[in-house]
Write a structure and sequence with these properties.
Elements (H helix, E strand, L loop, with lengths): L3 H15 L12 H11 L4 H14 L3 H5 L3 H8 L6 H16 L8 H5 L6 H12 L8 H10 L9 H14 L5 H15 L17 H4 L17 E10 L5 E5 L10 E2 L2 E2 L2 H10 L7 E2 L3 E4 L4 E10 L13 E4 L11 H9 L2
Helix pairs in contact: 1-11, 2-3, 2-8, 8-11, 9-11
Length: 347
């Protein structure tokens, strides 16, 4: 049976043969590159992150470059990656690092956690991956691995189980080869101890896995209790000029799609038409095929209504939160993915 003392040794032996060692953020490894990759990898698979990371690094090669960027520049490079609060927090933390840490990503756990968007596990990953110091991580891959290894039943998000798993992760973390160990334990969870159809026959821990011995691999970890997702329907105005410009509004910095550009939003068609009348515009809009989008906590149906202005002089006035955009400008701003698809579809 594998003991705590031999776990890291076995894991690293497996990693030396099978681990991922050529990911973009593993090249020219710095605190900044590791930090950006860890934020992008939250809730997102490696294969999806790679092109986003490479474009981001090309545009913002240093913390200072990111700190000096405009919010729209950052969000435009994040469009399609989802969970946009990550991008806003990344930008805000880059400014804080520049002002408070001379542009150097901290090596200290508490200093990292004090930054927006960095929790305990992400901080541990940065400490180990960037600086090769002991840093404890407990992301989804590690939780799944540990709950199966010890046949721990119950949803891991419960506070008492979370505390138990943190202690296990801490006990297992070695004092040497920390960058490799962190990558190894994430790789084992991502490529072998997968959520579905895990490759137990290829796992270096199969001899000590209690879930495997008890035939419980498929049922562990216990899923989070599901709640029926509420459904919301909104109407959006697709207001265009004869020249092909589209009116967009910047959303509030907090909330869904915070800080991104979107179409003017209304509770329903009646409210949309009322606002058009108030602005002295025609109300005879044309319906466009609705878009369905699922968030983590509710389902959204977007009902677009198209209005093409006959006279450019009738254009609605621009302000700080409302601008007209040409089609070729759309790649330069942060757009919610469903809205970007709608605009591309209606060019």
């Amino acid at each position: 049976m594998t003991t705590i003392n031999s776990f890291a040794e076995q894991l690293l032996t497996w990693f030396d043969q099978h681990g991922r060692k050529h990911l973009p953020w593993q090249k020219n490894r710095t605190g900044y590159r590791v930090w950006v990759s860890e934020i992008m990898l939250q809730q997102t698979q490696v294969i999806t992150v790679i092109p986003y990371f490479e474009r981001f690094m090309e545009q913002f090669p240093t913390v200072k470059d990111l700190a000096q960027a405009q919010s729209d520049e950052v969000l435009s490079l994040w469009t399609g990656l989802g969970y946009y609060s990550r991008a806003r927090n990344l930008h805000a933390s880059a400014i804080a690092i520049t002002e408070q840490h001379q542009g150097n990503v901290p090596k200290d756990l508490d200093a990292l956690i004090a930054l927006k968007g960095i929790g305990r596990s992400t901080a541990g990953a940065i400490i180990s991956q960037a600086y090769n110091n002991p840093g404890v991580i407990l992301d989804g891959n590690v939780k799944r691995l540990l709950t199966r290894l010890h046949a721990i039943e119950g949803w891991p998000g419960q506070s008492h189980l979370d505390k138990q798993l943190w202690q296990m992760a801490t006990d297992l973390t070695p004092t040497q080869r920390n960058a490799d160990y962190t990558q190894a334990i994430m790789d084992l969870g991502a490529t072998i101890c997968k959520p579905k159809q895990p490759l137990c026959v290829a796992c270096p821990m199969q001899d000590c896995c209690h879930a495997l011995a008890q035939d419980k691999v498929a049922s562990i970890p216990t899923p989070k209790p599901k709640k029926a997702l509420p459904h919301k329907t909104i109407s959006v105005l697709l207001l265009k000029t004869q020249q092909g410009q589209t009116l967009l509004e910047q959303r509030p910095s907090k909330g869904i799609w915070g800080g991104l550009w979107s179409l003017p939003e209304f509770v329903d068609l009646k409210a949309l038409q009322t606002q058009l009348a108030v602005n002295g515009l025609p109300t005879n809009t044309s319906p466009v095929t609705p878009i369905k989008h699922v968030f983590s906590h509710y389902k959204l149906t977007i009902e677009p209504h198209l209005l093409v202005l006959d006279n450019a002089s009738k254009k609605v006035s621009e302000n700080n939160k409302s601008q007209w955009y040409d089609p070729q400008q759309l790649h330069t701003i942060g757009l919610a993915t469903p809205i970007k698809k709608l605009l591309e579809r209606t060019q």
